[in-house]
Design brief:
binds zinc ion; alpha/beta
Length: 366
């Protein structure tokens, strides 16, 4: 009898522990979405409440150059209102200097012509409208942006798809297709020469690939260190590829950054024309393994923009795949299927968001 009681007690204990772990696991789930295009506080409040009801635990607010110039106090109010609804808040330097993800104009690149990326174009100097990541003036601008981000009371900053320019050029009058890339400005050329002992080549060599990657990694580390000192969490999202043309081809170099807290990627399967399950699983697995190795929180972004009609159900699949791979921090770009922006809106934004909401609530209410 004693043994039986002991057995029942142990079984109960086990069930209790499993329940606890499960509850803890679900409670640890983090879901979010990006939010932009609105600076009217009462509308923001309504939307933040809706995000909470729809399963979100955090929001990524964009803070563009336009916001810095014209909405600095609005951003403080927006972050405060978002936090009051219970959401954790991250700020995104959306399109700043045209070197992050984001459909936003940059006046920095207009005002500081010498801080633009210079392309390896041999037919003459070509300075494009993208800031050089090695430019001190641009880094100082970003340090000011971080200062404002900290002032808003946000919990963290979100470094989205930092990149350098890459394109292809085909002469109309014949000749070989040529890789066109940045940056070969005087600062970058000097840095390259110091590191490799010779002039920066105009071809896309292995050293050029490595130099461009270290430029992005060094920039991220510099920014993340400043943000960490201000008490902000750092979250980074890399393009879902290790093609050197995109800049970062060894993700480990970013995962190793000590002041980075959240490490993620955005396997946007509609955009990259990939099969949802395979793509989300492959990228999630890579994010997860590097995050485990360097003690980061893994994050996966779900595509909620430019979603074609009748394919909205794939969003549920993507969240399932990310969750089953072991990801517990999932975000969607963007709120309400990105209905607010013609350029990236989904065919049926309300159905997109319904799928996001269903997927989030499925795991939050499990
Ligand atoms: Zn440069």
């Amino acid at each position: 009898m004693k043994n039986r009681c002991h057995f029942i007690f142990l079984t109960f204990q086990l069930i209790f522990l499993t329940e606890m772990l499960l509850t803890f696991n679900i409670a640890c789930m983090k879901f979010g979405a990006s939010y932009f295009a609105n600076r009217i506080l009462r509308h923001v409040k309504t939307d933040m409440k809706k995000m909470v009801d729809d399963g979100c635990t955090f929001v990524v607010h964009t803070m563009s150059e336009h916001d810095v110039a014209y909405h600095s106090e609005n951003m403080v109010d927006i972050v405060k209102a978002s936090r009051e609804t219970g959401l954790e808040v991250f700020l995104d330097p959306w399109g700043i200097g045209r070197v992050f993800g984001g459909e936003s104009f940059s006046t920095f690149v207009k005002a500081y012509q010498n801080c633009r990326q210079k392309l390896n174009f041999t037919e003459g100097d070509m300075m494009i409208f993208k800031a050089c990541l090695n430019s001190k003036t641009f880094r100082d601008y970003m340090a000011n942006w971080i200062e404002l981000a900290a002032k808003t009371g946000a919990e963290g900053v979100f470094w989205d798809e930092p990149h350098l320019f890459f394109g292809e050029f085909t002469p109309l009058f014949g000749g070989k297709k040529k890789d066109i890339w940045g940056c070969v400005c005087s600062t970058c050329s000097d840095l390259f020469k110091q590191k490799y002992g010779y002039e920066i080549p105009m071809d896309f060599t292995d050293e050029v690939k490595a130099f461009r990657q270290s430029t992005i990694v060094n920039f991220l580390e510099h920014m993340a260190n400043i943000a960490a000192k201000k008490g902000l969490k750092n979250s980074v999202c890399l393009f879902p590829t290790t093609d050197p043309r995109y800049g970062i081809y060894e993700w480990e170099k970013v995962a190793m950054i000590k002041s980075m807290d959240i490490f993620g990627s955005d396997p946007y399967w509609y955009a990259y024309k990939k099969e949802v399950k395979e793509f989300v699983k492959q990228v999630s697995s890579e994010v997860l393994s590097l995050s485990a190795k360097y003690k980061k929180e893994p994050q996966i972004w779900i595509q909620g923009y430019r979603v074609p009609a009748d394919r909205e159900g794939e969003i549920m699949t993507a969240v399932d795949v990310a969750y089953n791979t072991g990801i517990r921090n999932i975000a969607t770009w963007s709120f309400e299927g990105t209905d607010c922006m013609t350029y990236v809106r989904s065919d049926r934004p309300e159905i997109v968001w319904q799928n996001v909401c269903n997927a989030y609530l499925k795991y939050r209410n499990k």
